[in-house]
Amino acid sequence: MHFEIVTEDASGKIALEILVPKIIDAEYHTFRIHSYRGIGRIPKDLKPTSDPKKRILLDQLPRLVKGHGKTFAATPDYPAALIVICDLDNRCLSAFRKELIDCVNICNPKPETHFCIAIEEGEAWYLGDLDAVRKAYPSARSTILNTYKNDDICNTWETLADAIFPGGSLKLSRLGGQVGKEKVNWAEKISPYMDVDQNLSPSFCYFRDKLRFVSDLHH
């Protein structure tokens, strides 16, 4: 089984490169992870409006899904699935899921596609494993970590920054473009310690279980 996994930023790609082999047998299955430079929005007529080079995930999603449909159809002897991971942000979940599915339904042939929607940012996956956060950052502020509720709508990256970044999220925000770089640091440092079977983030568990379910179908 081959997986094409798409995420909206560089830190997500780094985390997934570490986490996916913990979830499925990477010697039996293959995978590639592609990162974009932001999430954007799905165009109303499903025709991308931005330059593909800008790599805005949702704007390019109809084109992306269509391309994978054709690619997968050309290799029928080796099953493949497209996994799209994106944040819900402030969207309506049911309406957003319908938009995503519409991107698949217009395709012929349709690729096997699964959408994994993180209710909050990907940092919720790290906060689903507080032991991993503490191992990566031994001086993390327990008073902040212990009050976190998994997948709660609570400005997740700011919560993580308040717990582990000197000066917290306010100082990090004032550093301009440093937020993205710091998220990459978190991915590199926390992901290796994460226990994928003990994670308490519902959205991470959904992704993990979906990946295993699809891989088991084709084992």
Describe this structure in words.
The protein folds into two domains: 2-122 and 199-217, Rossmann fold (3-Layer(aba) Sandwich), CATH 3.40.50; 127-193, no CATH class. It has ten helices and four strands; from the N terminus they run βαβαβαβααααααα. The protein has 219 residues and is of the alpha/beta class. 48% of the residues lie in helices and 12% in strands. α1 (10-23) links the parallel β1 and β2 (30-35). It has helices spanning 10-23, 57-73, 93-105, 123-127, 130-136, 142-145, 156-164, 168-174, 178-190, 202-217; strands at 2-7, 30-35, 80-87, 113-118. α1 packs parallel to α9 and α7 (156-164) crosses α8 (168-174). The relative contact order is 0.16. The chain has a four-stranded parallel beta sheet, with helices on both faces. It starts with a strand and ends with a helix. The radius of gyration is 18 Å and the shape is globular.
Would you spell out the secondary-structure blueprint of this structure?
Layout lengths: L1 E6 L2 H14 L6 E6 L21 H17 L6 E8 L5 H13 L7 E6 L4 H5 L2 H7 L5 H4 L10 H9 L3 H7 L3 H13 L11 H16 L2
Parallel strand pairs: 1-2, 1-3, 3-4
Residue share in helix: 40-55%
What's the story with the biggest beta sheet?
4 strands, parallel
N-to-C series of helices and strands: EHEHEHEHHHHHHH
Give average pLDDT, whole number.
90
What is the CATH architecture term of the largest domain?
3-Layer(aba) Sandwich
Task: List unreliable stretches of 5+ residues.
Answer: none
Tell the overall outline.
globular
CATH class of the largest domain: Alpha Beta
* Total strand segments: 4
Instruction: Give the amount of beta strand, in percent.
Output: 5-15%
- Span between termini: 7 Å
Round the Cα radius of gyration to an integer and report it.
18 Å
Question: What order do the strands of the largest sheet run in, or round the barrel if closed?
Answer: 2-1-3-4
Give the structural class: alpha/beta
Count up the helices.
Answer: 10
CATH topology of the largest domain: Rossmann fold
For the record, the count of structural domains works out to 2
